[in-house]
């Protein structure tokens, strides 16, 4: 594996504590779902730390748990016996070893990993989970692969080497000396500078001069992150969600959901959905729009191939944008997201909530509960996620 994860020691919990839960899991016929949120601080990986989301995705985790329970008739395990729809913390378990053991002891047979995983995450390493690893199912990606693929520079360079993918030109900047060297190059402005392990639009900026680029990158480099500097794509922005193979969706291979268009950018960048609601700057394209422009199906095929290449086991989302502001311009891939946001409506006061993947689902005639059920149906045994191997073309 490229690089090592630096992490804190986890409390050791005896496997005997989950023995009863293991016996229950082996005979359970219906799922009992526990949603996990990001309790753990993201580790330092190759000198770079991914910023933790404020709240640790508990808001979307509560959306998922509430809708599964009240609109999908799924047995949802919660930290408290009578969860309050307006209290996010009542619906989700922390992704620490203790939090997951608590969920299993309460009877969980499925984990919904609504969190950021990494190679030394307790979901991957905890010996206390080994006794249930073959029966416990997880909605999520293999932790070891997530750590590798959360490095946007690694993924982009991998796709360039493999060929067949359209991407903007880019430069990697690991330190201030590399930045100084790059600033001597005759870059074509504007360019986009962003963290190599970013979250959403955090730290992403369109820079229109060497001075602006230098100031922004120096700020990012001080925050334990490397930087990607890539050509600015000036045309229409969109995003494509790719689903994994699953009998519940009727697909035995990877497949793309309808394209979702992004608009109303702020300074050339789609704003974080915590600031501007997805419904205010995004829409699912109609079937006729897809059919009228072959560039949509072309980029969908590329996104499907990315998911197949990375061996994803859960939905993933890829942001794309045309090179030029013209319908004749092709799309380029510019951001591969291993954990798409899954916010959605259902809880009181959350009626206007949505996510890009939920919007894409509407193009299939799926509402938010249907999407969640389809995702639950694609869950994978923890044993398989732990033992997922790197694709043969990737060398450690």
TrEMBL record:
Name the domain of life.
Answer: Eukaryota
Q: Has the keyword Ligase been applied to this entry?
A: yes
Q: Which InterPro entries match?
A: ATP-grasp, ATP_grasp_subdomain_1, Dala_Dala_lig_C
Q: Which GO terms describe its molecular function?
A: ATP binding; D-alanine-D-alanine ligase activity; metal ion binding
Give the matching Gene3D superfamilies: ATP-grasp fold, A domain (3.30.1490.20), ATP-grasp fold, B domain (3.30.470.20)
* Keyword line: ATP-binding, Ligase, Nucleotide-binding
A Pfam match is: Dala_Dala_lig_C
Q: Where is this region: Disordered?
A: 1-21
- The answer to whether keyword Transmembrane applies is no
The signal peptide annotation in the UniProt record is none
Polar residues composition bias: residue spans: 1-15
The family line of this record is: Belongs to the D-alanine--D-alanine ligase family.
Q: What is this protein called?
A: ATP-grasp domain-containing protein
From what organism does this protein derive? Alternaria alternata (Alternaria rot fungus)
